[in-house]
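Justification of computing resources. Each target in the renewal requires a structure prediction run like the one illustrated here; the chain below, 140 residues long, is used simply to show the kind of job we budget for.
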Amino acid sequence: MLKEFQAFIKKGNVLQMAVGLILALYFGAITKSFVDDILMPPLGLLIGGVDFSTLKLVLQEGVAAVTEGDVVVVEAVKEVSINYGTFINTIITFVIVAFAVFMLVKAYSKMEEKEDAAPSGPSKEEVLLAEIRDELRKRN
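Resulting structure tokens:
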């Protein structure tokens, strides 16, 4: 089983897949930063100064810890909220990534079509030149 695993890892397409996954991970990080840091602030400003990342529905308010000296009288309670602003940012990030992938696939498909559409035989000009060459050979 170890030898099979080694053979699998040594295949070139596994390495290519790993490189693709790493690039995709960082492409996602760049896109997230683009949405969160560049796209959303002006969009929030346009709709009234809203910062999407802070939009949330608070279900339970958080309570800070209360201490008297070194003794904790009341334990801290974290806020419980539905962070729908972060969800909106994630949706926008997904749409941008999906559009970028769509454009890459479209460009790749066009490239494939050009390769498939390449003439299999010689062009009209090449045929004509070959006929001229053959005719000149006959005369000499």
